[in-house]
Amino acid sequence: MDQIGSILREARLAHGITYEQVEEDIMIKKRYLQAMEDGEWSKLPGRAYAKGFLRLYAQYLKINVASVMDLFEVEVRPDNAVSNTVIIREVPIEPRHKIELNNKPKKNLIMVLSVLSILLLLGVQWACRIYLGPSSAGPPTQASGETTVPAAVGGQEPSDPADRVQPQEEPVPDATKNTIDVMVLAQEEACWVRLEDSGTKLYEGTLKPGEKVEFFNIKKMHIAAGNAGAIQVTINGQTLDTLGGFGKVVKKTFTVENGVLIELS
Fold this sequence. Notes:
The chain is of the alpha+beta class. It has helices spanning 3-15, 19-26, 30-38, 47-60, 65-75, 104-132, and strands at residues 180-186, 191-197, 200-207, 212-218, 220-225, 231-235, 238-239, 250-257, 260-263.
C-alpha cells in the first residue's frame, strides 16, 4: 500500500464508512475505491480518471485535497503507474440521442455542391435569354399574398361585397416549446453523468474533457453529475449557470411549462 492509499483508508475507517456507502454517495465504483486505497493505480481507467476520482474521494473524506494531489504527482508516474486503457461503456441507443462527430468535410462538400448548383442555374437562365429571346419568358406571375379580384361585367365593380374574393389569413403556428433539448459538455475534467426523462434512463457514463451528449424533446429531465463543476449544461439554447463546484455530486430536475424553464429540485 502506498502513502496515498494509507491516508485514504485511515480517513475512511476513522469516519466509519463502508465502500458501499461511498459508492452510493459519490458514485465511484467499489473496485476503484479499493484500488486507490491499495495503491493499484493501474486498475483505474486512465490518469485523468485517476486524478478526478482521487480529488472527489479526498473531498468526501475531508482530506486536504491540494496535499493529496501533490503527493499523487510525486508517487504516481504517468509512464507506468496508471493504465491508459479506456473503458467503453455500453449506452442504449435512443432515437433522440446524438453524439456530435467532426463533420466539417461533409459540410464543406455540401457548400461546394450548393454553389455549383446556383452557378449552373444562372448559366441556364442566361442561355435561355440569349438564344430564345424575350418571347420564351412566361406570363408574369402574381405576387404571393395578393388576391385577384374578378373583372366586373360592363366595367363596373361588383356591388355586393360578398362577390369580392377576400384574402385569407394564414394560421400562426404556436411557437411555445414545452419540451427540453439539452446538451451536456465536459470541459476541464472528466465527469460521470446520468440523464433521465420522466424516470427513463437516457444516458449514463463518464464524459472526458471535450466530449458532449445531446437529447431532444424531453418532458421532464433529471440530471445527476459526479463532478458538477466540470460540465456545462445548455437547455433549449440557453447555457445554465454551473450546477455545482468541482468534485461536488449534484442532482437536479427540470421541466418546461408554457415555454418557461422550471427547476423542480
